[in-house]
Amino acid sequence: MAVFEYSAVDGAGRSHTGVLEAANAAVARSLLRDRELLPVSVEPTAARAPVAQKTRVFRRSALDGRTLSLVTRQLSTLIGAGVSIEEALAILGKQTTRPRTAALLLDIRSRVVEGAGLAQALDGHPAAFPEYYRASVSAGEQAGQLSEVLFHLAASVEARQKNRQTATLALIYPALLAVVSTGIVIMLLIYVVPDIVRVFEARGGDLPLPTRGLIATSAFITDWGWVVLISLLGGGLAFRGWLSGAQNRLAFDRAKLRMPIIRTFVRQSNSAQFAGTLATLVNSGVPLVEALDTAARATPNRFMRARIGEVATRVREGTSLRNSVAEADVFPPMLTAMIASGEAGRRLGPMLERAATDQQRELDALVTTLVSLVEPGVLLLMGGIVMLMVVSILLPIVGLNDLAGGTL
């Protein structure tokens, strides 16, 4: 079965658009006529586009956090109630009001009907379903705990979406302030400062050091600003291309764990992700070794991911989880201690869940602290730049008599 996007009109001339499943375009048109609709256009969705078009297709198929959370929770409820996967996907596809989401769900259903597993079907839409999500679904399918895994995934997606919204809303004002202030300063340096400074230069004499620095900065931005901008853009693109290499990305992720300010945030965020994913899988009955492999794939930092893979290998060889995690030396001590406590008390799942909550709480506190420092930091920085400009202009005015040879 394929998925088609259609545009049609009814007997009253009203336009209708949507998606439907059919064996081919002719069957799709017949189905529309059965609904008393006159087909205007019936086109296959872009979900099965050729490989060369995948980038564009995946962008179009992306789901926002709220939609992903809602779909996950509804899917968990339906599967938990005994509804088959293909029927659950069909129900969700029909009840959504978003054509793109409906096309995405129906395309996944088509793949499942053709014999693919749910995780395999989700692999066709990596922009809509993140790697950790697909890895967790795969582990849930293999362990026969798909409904439980989806339930925990829904809670995880909701928490991520809430944190992302909180950080975004908190950073909107500082970001706008920084952009507008930087633009104003650049405009002053290009159009205003040269005219003011030209008066001082015409009177002769030695200008103060801050004024000479302001003149040099204004001249540099006027003459070479576009070169700097192009160089920054080119450097960013080059760095992004460099990061596309697996070894380069691994080295960069390892370096982030050594940077004084960034390392705490990186370690906390990745530890929270690891603990949360592992807790979800262990509580859902997924075997520990398999859960560790999945949790490794769900960890964004490649260096920590490699370390978790080594932990899985040691556990597979018979080493205890607490010793393996301690030897990895990439997790906060509190997380290691809680894993040891849970393993000793045979309550690994609940302790991992508690550890994930604690790590997320510490991460939220860290993010809140950093965000609260951004706004005053931007104000102080831009205020300092403006003050320096004002001082650079006022100093020659204060010494105007000296510049004019002692006469006004």
Task: Write structural notes for this entry.
The chain has 408 residues and is mainly α. The protein has 3 domains: 2-44; 58-156, Type II secretion system (T2SS), domain F (Receptor-associated Protein); 162-408, Up-down Bundle (Receptor-associated Protein). It is built from 17 helices and 3 strands. It has helices at residues 25-34, 54-60, 65-80, 85-95, 99-113, 118-122, 131-143, 146-203, 209-243, 246-256, 262-283, 288-297, 302-316, 321-328, 333-344, 348-398, 400-403; strands at residues 2-9, 15-22, 38-44. Strands 2-1-3 form a 3-stranded antiparallel sheet. The longest helix is centred in the middle third of the chain and has 58 residues, at 146-203. The chain is flat, with a radius of gyration of 29 Å. The termini are far apart. Mean pLDDT is 79; it is low at 47-60.
Helices and strands in order:
Blueprint: E1 2-9, E2 15-22, H1 25-34, E3 38-44, H2 54-60, H3 65-80, H4 85-95, H5 99-113, H6 118-122, H7 131-143, H8 146-203, H9 209-243, H10 246-256, H11 262-283, H12 288-297, H13 302-316, H14 321-328, H15 333-344, H16 348-398, H17 400-403
Antiparallel strand pairs: 1-2, 1-3
